[in-house]
Design goal:
Shape: globular
Structural class: alpha+beta
Number of helices: 4
Radius of gyration: 19 Å
Strand content: 25-35%
Strand order of the largest sheet: 6-5-8-3-2-1-9
Distance between the termini: 48 Å
CATH class: Mainly Beta
Number of domains: 1
Number of strands: 9
Length: 176
């Protein structure tokens, strides 16, 4: 009786390992909305935004601290959607993209209607690079690549980092 149970557990373990080791889609290039397949592009019409989890980002600068209310994009679906098709965003709001391992690659602004600034940060929360990104509704859209590995990226309305005195080297702390 033990042999069939052991065999079943072994098969289950092998199946689990094959699925776990298979890996996901190529994520070497992070884009606010990844380069879609032709079908995904056809389906990319404005749809209701997914319900993003809310959080707060505290940015410590030389001049003090800034609190930004953020929506959290941490699944592939949420990161692909990002801030697409939105026409506005309050000044003290943004979206944070989170990875659980170092990430490389850039963001693009396909179907994103709001000009944004983006701060890429490391696993210690230190801001590594800040870039401005412009809306793009037609191909080809430029890719905004920070040229460094990062664990997160915070998007806000374009110019807000300057207005708040946020610069590279400052720190972001997330509160979930």
């Amino acid at each position: 009786m033990l042999a069939p149970v052991s065999r079943a557990l072994s098969l289950l373990l092998v199946t689990f390992l094959l699925v776990a080791c298979r890996g996901g889609p190529d994520t070497t290039e992070r884009v606010a909305s990844p380069a879609p397949t032709p079908q995904a592009e056809a389906d990319a019409s404005p749809q209701p935004s997914p319900s993003f989890r809310g959080a707060a980002a505290l940015i410590d600068t030389d001049d003090g601290s800034v609190i930004v209310r953020v929506e959290v994009a941490q699944t592939d679906e949420e990161r692909m959607r990002g801030l697409m098709f939105r026409e506005s965003m309050p000044e003290d709001h943004g979206m944070v993209f989170i990875w659980f391992e170092e990430h490389h690659g850039g963001f693009w602004m396909k179907n994103t209607l709001i000009p944004l600034s983006i701060a890429f940060f490391g696993n210690d929360g230190r801001i590594l690079r800040i870039m401005d990104m412009d809306p793009c509704t037609e191909d080809p859209c430029p890719v905004y690549d920070p040229g460094v590995g990062y664990y997160g990226a915070l998007e806000v309305n374009q110019g807000m980092f300057d207005e708040w005195g946020v610069k590279e080297g400052d720190h972001i702390t997330m509160s979930f």
